[in-house]
Amino acid sequence: MAINKESNVYTIVFATIMVVVVGGVLAFLSLSLKDKQEANGRVKKKIEILSALLSADEMSKIDRTNAEEKYEEYIKEGVLLTSTGTVVKEGVEGKEAAFGVDIKGEYKNKNIAVKDRQYPMFIAQKDGKTLYIIPVIGKGLWGPIWGNLCISEDMRSISGASFGHQGETPGLGAEISQGFFVDRWTKANEVIADESGEFVPFEIVKDGTGANPNKIDGITGGTITSKGVEEMVNRCLVPYTVYFKTKKS
């Protein structure tokens, strides 16, 4: 019996078969590539952590082929904190625990209260000094923004930084990832706490007063993204200053 390809039944059956076949292929590919996707995600995360610790010249020599080796070379320990700065895990065990925290996922998940978020930190050894890398997460104009701040051995001074974004406007908010903006955090002796260990908030300004203590010149035309960085840094740093103050005492 000849099949009537013009009938509605044929169209519905054919469409159903195609949906099942294509869906099955996509599902298979997704599952088969899951391990590779997760591995690539881990490498990308390690590169982002290192980018706050190392200079641009040092980072130019790191890619996906050697990122994990370099990460192990520099990152020796880790700390996992609560929102109040209480230690959950630290040391070598804390290193893996800290890396396992998805701060982007926790930030987006409305079912996780702010007080229940986890705060990871990575402890590095470089040139005989102990340095502390703090990841931060927030919201820009069009989507999420994130970064890492490297704190010096004094547990106060910012010695390195890196920022990233998803969807910010090129030439405007997207400039937070550029070297000139990062330099504003590292070349003015900025600190995250006063001498007594109390947190000192940052202000991102557009009046040219960024050379003053704890003020950072924002991105021209990227006010909302700049303020997003300000909110992100000020919110995320508090538990770490509590940890540093306790550690010093």
Round the Cα radius of gyration to an integer and report it. Answer: 23 Å
Mean pLDDT: 91
Q: How are helices and strands ordered from N to C? A: HHHEEHHEEEEHEEH
List the uncertain runs.
Answer: none
Please list the strands of the largest sheet in the order they lie side by side: 2-1-3-4-5-6
What kind of oligomer do you see? single chain
- Main sheet makeup: 6 strands, antiparallel
Number of domains: 1
Straight-line N-to-C gap: 89 Å
Q: What's the total helix number?
A: 7
Structural class by SSE content: alpha+beta
Descriptive key words:
249 residues, alpha+beta, six-stranded antiparallel beta sheet, 8 strands, globular
Quick take:
This protein has 249 residues and is an alpha+beta fold.
3D structure, described in words:
The chain is an alpha+beta fold. It has one domain. The protein is 43% helix and 21% strand. The strands form 2 sheets. A 6-stranded antiparallel β-sheet has the order 2-1-3-4-5-6, sandwiched between helices. Strands 7-8 form a two-stranded parallel ribbon. The longest helix is centred in the N-terminal third of the chain and has 46 residues, at 8-53. It is globular.
